[in-house]
């Protein structure tokens, strides 16, 4: 039983064959999923999927790449969805310095406002961090995000950043890059993180694990991430699946 804590089954690459993709996930032992919405189009679709399937949950937030587009109404809307019974977290939110559509200062402001909202509604947060590790950790500390905790999604930082996040009640989630042949850093970091604070995810359709790198990713492939984690930890796949699923259920408050 695996919990894919970050899927985007709510976007176009799955429009044609979503049903088959979900079936393959179930055959692969993926029994729970968190569908992440990040803008005006993808948030309603995440909620819709979570309402349609018992084993799907939703997270709602505003992506840092599009921070410049977020209005006060958007934030109020996200707040209104926070009380939906299948919404388990706010996000993804964070900082993305790879793309320059939204200036850094705008990204930081939109990130701060969402952290403050999460504290208000008492939900954990899902963090998107691309090339912004230190600024993310600084901002989470400044805003006392540890009061709600959450997930460092598809973590790519070093051990020092990971430890700062662990100190703030965050879980560290690894995806496809953990399986890449040349990925030394995530493997080193994953080895050092206690099993009780690790999660697995796909971030599908992005970041497909080895040997599917470059292809469309899907939730069934989270098993490959869990197998890699098991190898790094000297544990069985079953042990990794059981612990990471328990961790995610605890974080999302799913009984
Ligand atoms: Ni994502």
Which labels suit this protein?
single chain; 255 residues; alpha/beta; TIM Barrel; eight-stranded parallel beta sheet; 9 helices; 18% strand; globular; binds nickel (II) ion
Give a concise summary.
The chain has 255 residues and is of the alpha/beta class. It is 41% helix and 18% strand.
What is the assigned CATH homologous superfamily?
Metal-dependent hydrolases
* CATH arch. level architecture: Alpha-Beta Barrel
Derived structural class = alpha/beta
Strand content: 15-25%
**What ligands does this structure carry?**
nickel (II) ion
- The low-confidence runs, each spanning 5 or more residues with pLDDT under 50, are none
In the CATH hierarchy, the third-tier topology is known as TIM Barrel
Q: Could you give the distance between the termini? A: 15 Å
> What is the percent of helical residues?
40-55%
Order of helices and strands: EHEHEHEHEHEHEHEHH
Strand order of the largest sheet: 1-2-3-4-5-6-7-8
Largest sheet: 8 strands, parallel
Number of helices: 9
CATH class call: Alpha Beta
Mean pLDDT across all amino acids: 98
Global shape: globular
Q: Rounded to an integer, what's the Rg over CA atoms?
A: 17 Å
Number of domains: 1
Q: Report the count of strand segments.
A: 8
Set down the secondary structure blueprint.
Blueprint: E1 2-7, H1 18-27, E2 30-37, H2 42-52, E3 56-60, H3 72-81, E4 87-96, H4 104-121, E5 125-130, H5 133-142, E6 150-152, H6 159-167, E7 170-174, H7 184-192, E8 198-200, H8 222-233, H9 237-252
Parallel strand pairs: 1-2, 2-3, 3-4, 4-5, 5-6, 6-7, 7-8
Helix pairs in contact: 8-9
This protein binds nickel (II) ion.
């Amino acid at each position: 039983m695996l919990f894919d804590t970050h899927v985007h089954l709510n976007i176009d690459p799955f429009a044609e064959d979503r049903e088959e993709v979900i079936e393959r996930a179930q055959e692969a032992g993926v029994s729970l999923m968190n569908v992440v919405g990040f803008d005006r189009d993808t948030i309603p679709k995440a909620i819709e999927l979570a309402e349609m399937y018992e084993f799907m949950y939703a997270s709602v937030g505003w992506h840092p790449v599009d921070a410049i587009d977020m209005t006060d109404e958007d934030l109020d809307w996200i707040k209104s969805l926070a009380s939906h019974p299948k919404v388990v977290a706010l996000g993804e939110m964070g900082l993305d310095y790879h793309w320059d559509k939204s200036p850094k200062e705008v990204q930081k402001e939109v990130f701060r406002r969402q952290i403050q909202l999460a504290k208000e509604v008492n939900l954990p947060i899902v963090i998107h961090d691309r090339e912004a590790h230190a600024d993310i950790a600084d901002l989470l500390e400044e805003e006392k995000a540890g009061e709600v905790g959450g997930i460092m999604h598809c973590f790519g930082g070093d051990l020092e950043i990971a430890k700062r996040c662990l100190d703030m009640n965050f879980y560290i989630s690894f995806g496809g890059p953990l399986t890449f042949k040349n990925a030394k850093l995530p493997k080193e970091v994953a080895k050092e993180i206690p099993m009780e604070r690790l999660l697995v995810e796909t971030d599908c359709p992005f970041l497909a694990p080895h040997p599917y790198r470059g292809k469309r990713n899907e939730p069934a492939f989270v098993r490959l991430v869990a197998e890699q984690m098991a190898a790094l930890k000297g544990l069985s796949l079953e042990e990794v699946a059981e612990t990471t699923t328990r961790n995610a259920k605890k974080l999302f408050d799913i009984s």
